[in-house]
Amino acid sequence: MSARELILDRIRRANGAAPGREAATAAWMRGESGAAPRPAQGASQGAARLDQFEAKVIAASATLSRVSD
Predict the structure, then answer these.
(1) What is the DSSP letter of 16?
(2) C-alpha–C-alpha distance, residues 67 and 69, integer Å
(3) Disulfide check for 27: which of 32, 39, 43, 46 has CB 3.0–4.6 Å away?
(4) Running along the chain, 69 residues long, what does each successive block of 10 average in pLDDT?
């Protein structure tokens, strides 16, 4: 068991999670449930892509301003 799994197990026990739900949650977190990506992953990927786009725009803008001077 990894350190992450041990921590999650302790949290589940402290919250009194049901054994069936515990197994389903663990499978879902490992990506084995076959469900759609977690919303947090989609949001973080979108934000990261937006940050990359903004960085490219800033770099292009800086390049254009140097060329026009």
Answers:
(1) T
(2) 6
(3) 32
(4) 80 70 73 60 66 86 69
